[in-house]
Design goal:
This protein has about 325 residues and is α/β, with parallel strands linked by helices. Helix 3 runs parallel beside helix 4 and helix 5 crosses helix 6. The protein is globular. The chain starts with 10 loop residues before the first strand and ends with a helix. Keywords: Hydrolase.
Length: about 325
């Protein structure tokens, strides 16, 4: 077993959007990181809240990017949602599908009947992300749920990461129906629920998996709920300010700028960093204030500051006493 971070785990469960790729382009270093795990025979899995592709399509997309993947290694919220519906409904039951063709195909393969209108008296509505979801189908969903249909959401991610910045995600579309009905979905299947993580671990017979994600409110919170260690990478949605403000339910075990953090010593990415000085930075705490001085790796500073904010210092109490520290806090909008 290696003495780096990943050497302490028998499975790495990756989120995809914001971790391995952004839309259709791999994130710098991701291909090399997964390749290194493959060379070391470290099992990997991919757990994604994105319901717009089936497992085989996701595996093909990854392979086309230079990240070899098998469909059995991919768990999607679309497939998991179809499984949940099949467990709750009689075979052949009509289900109104809001989302992409992938979700419709998963519902059909689960032995249920996809429909498009509330007039078809669906037993359930399943809602997942799709780039073409519009007012008409959201209206049908609201009518069906109001008439008594079970409402299942594949996930509630408010945004999707992209090279142009965060884009509306399924959570934003769910919010449209939630506003119209003044109620929440009956079931939310994907992260931050633990099911995708626990299923991945079970399929790989893993005893000590590591979850890797870019979102505190889904990836990391889901890992915490599943009882798994987690690594937050700063290549997607959640940034330093979000991490500093995170509550206990969404705090990762480790934080790194990108997937290269998997291959360094665990103690160099563990968060929080309980110290007065590290890596050229100095942290001085006085009651409800914490002063950052010096210069160095921004992630080291972030880990030091988490020790302060996670133990009671408000974000407004963070102060900079060096040019490098001031530039860093300004960049983090603090």
């Amino acid at each position: 077993m290696s003495d780096d971070l990943v050497g302490g785990y028998d499975l790495v469960i990756f989120d995809l959007d914001g971790v391995v790729y952004l839309i259709d382009e791999p994130i710098a270093g991701a291909v090399e990181a997964v390749g290194k795990l493959r060379d070391r025979k470290t099992p990997v899995a991919y757990a994604t809240n994105n319901a717009s592709r089936r497992a085989a399509d996701v595996a093909a997309k990854l392979t086309g990017m230079g990240v070899p993947a098998e469909p059995a290694e991919v768990l999607t919220s679309a497939g998991a949602s179809a499984t949940v519906l099949a467990e709750k409904l009689p075979a052949g039951s009509p289900v109104l599908v809001v989302g992409a063709d992938a979700l419709r195909d998963e519902v059909r393969e689960a032995g249920l009947t996809p429909v498009e209108s509330a007039d078809d008296e669906p037993a359930a509505v399943v809602q997942g992300y799709g780039p073409d979801v519009g007012w008409r189908v959201l209206t049908e969903a609201a009518l069906a749920v109001r008439a008594g249909a079970l409402w299942v959401a594949t996930n509630t991610d408010r945004t999707l990461p992209s090279p142009r910045g965060p884009l509306p995600g399924n959570g934003s579309l769910v919010a449209v129906v939630r506003t119209a009905l003044d109620r929440d979905p009956d079931v939310v299947v994907g992260k931050p629920g633990p099911a995708l993580f626990t299923t991945a671990a079970s399929q790989s017979h893993a005893r000590h998996p590591l979850a890797v994600g870019d979102r505190l409110d889904t990836d990391i919170q889901g890992a915490v709920a599943a009882g798994l260690d987690s690594l937050l990478v700063l290549t997607g949605v959640s940034g330093p300010a979000d991490l500093l403000a995170a509550d206990e339910s969404s705090r990762p075990t480790y934080v790194a700028s990108d997937l290269s953090g998997l291959f360094g010593p665990a103690d160099e990415v563990r968060v929080p960093l309980e110290a007065d000085e590290a890596g050229g930075w100095r942290l001085t705490r006085d009651g409800d204030t914490a002063k950052l001085d010096g210069s160095g790796d921004p992630v080291v500073a972030l880990r030091l500051l988490c020790a302060a904010t996670w133990s009671g210092v408000p974000l407004s109490g963070l102060q900079a006493t060096s040019d490098a520290a001031r530039a860093l806090l300004e960049r983090w909008n603090l």
